[in-house]
Amino acid sequence: MEIVKAVIGHVKEISELMSSDLKNPNSKFPQKMINNFIEHAKEENIIKEFKNPGLIAFIAKNEGKVVGFIVGYEDTLKDSAMIHYITANEIEIKKELLEQFIKECKLKNIKNNHGYF
Asked: Rounded mean pLDDT of the chain?
C-alpha cells in the first residue's frame, strides 16, 4: 500500500469511495451533516475542491486501487488545519493517512491541528 497526494485524476475514485462510505453512516452524526457530505461526494463538487489552495488531501492505494482518503484544509490566517473527512475500511489505513496529513502540516509549519471525522 502507498499513500500519495490526491490529485484531480483521483476524483472519480474519491467520489465512489465517499459515496459508498455514506450509504451506512454512523448514527452519531446528524442527518443534515450526512446529506451535506452526500452532496459533496458528487464528482463535480470534488473537482471544485482541487481549486482550493488550502486543500490538503491524500489517498491510500493498494494494487492501484484507491482504498482510503483523507481531506482537510489549511487556514494560513490561523496557522491551523482541519480534517474534514477520512475514510478507509481498515483502521491501519486511516492511521497511515492521518500520519501523512500530520507530516504535511509539519512541512507547512502548521502548528494547530483540528479535525473531526
From this structure: 91
